[in-house]
Amino acid sequence: MKRHLTILSAAAAVVIALTVSGCGGPSVAGTGAPGATEVKELRYQGWANTVTLPELAQDLGYLGDVKLNWVGNTISGPQDIQSAATGQTDFGGAFAGAVVKLVEAGAPVKAVINYYGEDSKTFNGYYVKADSPIRTARDFIGKKIAVNTLGAHSEAVINTYLRKNGLSADEIKQVQLVVVPPNDTEEAIRRGQVDAGSLGSILQDKAIANGGLRSVFSDFDLFGSFAGGPYVLRGDFIAQNPNTTRTFTTGVAKAIEWERTTPRQEVIARFTKILKERGRNENPAALQYWKSVGVPNKGEIKDEDFTRWNEYLKSVGIIKSDLDPKKLYTNEFNGLISN
């Protein structure tokens, strides 16, 4: 498989778009100077049947006079941050390794806060049918695994799992990753369209409740609790809108801690209310399976959130030497940890 060529081509497309557009767009309005007018409306992509942390932050009043402008949904973290990099949206979130790919390709984005992570309650499992012969890493050779997108969290985890369990680079290439929308992954496994699939959070718990599937491994098995990926903004947006950036980042941090400290049923009730009120013709049924926020420590970003993926990124040709994570992120605008 030549998965890394697809990733690099996508990243190169972002650089071309940045060159053509100048990374402008209607939302880059402030100057960063005292008294200057800053952008107060942030364009973003959501996820169907899901309440994101910024959406929760807005509903809880944590964004103050900053408003969100939903422009559509995505099922791909890499696509989401590419949209932010090219000025089609103002922020996007993705797997930390996808952020590295974008920055290495020259995109001027900066991570400001982690927005998803794994813990003992919330993690991504890699599931097969209960009667599947797949039980070990080596059993995946020649098989198909459903992932929501290439070049993101699931690919990195699968690659790491296979490598840690002794598969060679050539053997890993024989494991085929198939892009399947997350909402369709459970059925794809059950129908035999794929041999295994990545299921996380609400979709994972729903699939388990339906019975007939079992987990071969999970990212929590591999790493324990960890941050999976951050929200990024363009560097020029941050420079010209520092107060809005701080309001957004701190609001997301507050939403993380609200989810962490609020009784589970109250969180689910709030999600359900938001879903129904925003009128996107969504189904709130799966929200009952929500368990935890998963994001460590107020969304604070650490070096290891990126360096954890060094070997994977080298194996697909994204980096040639170890990362310098300090150029990838800042915690400056997270008011819960920077004050």
Descriptors:
about 350 residues, alpha/beta, 5-stranded mixed β-sheet, about 40% helix, 3-stranded antiparallel β-sheet, disordered N terminus
Polypeptide structure, described:
With about 350 residues, this protein is α/β, with parallel strands linked by helices. Helix content is about 40%, strand content about 15%. It contains 15 helices and ten strands. A five-stranded mixed beta sheet has the order 7-6-8-5-9, with helices on both faces. Helix 2 crosses helix 11.
Helical content band = 40-55%
Total beta strands: 10
Largest β-sheet summary = 5 strands, mixed
Q: Proportion of β residues? A: 15-25%
What's this model, at a glance?
Helix content is 41%, strand content 17%. By secondary structure, it is of the alpha/beta class.
Detail the topology: elements first, then pairings.
Blueprint lengths: L2 H19 L19 E6 L6 H7 L7 E7 L3 H9 L6 E2 L2 H9 L4 E10 L5 E6 L14 E4 L5 H12 L4 H5 L2 E4 L2 H9 L5 E5 H10 L2 E6 H5 L2 E9 H6 L1 H20 L2 H15 L25 H4 L2 H6 L19 H4 L1
Parallel strand pairs: 1-2, 6-7, 6-8
Antiparallel strand pairs: 3-10, 4-10, 5-8, 5-9
Helix pairs in contact: 2-11
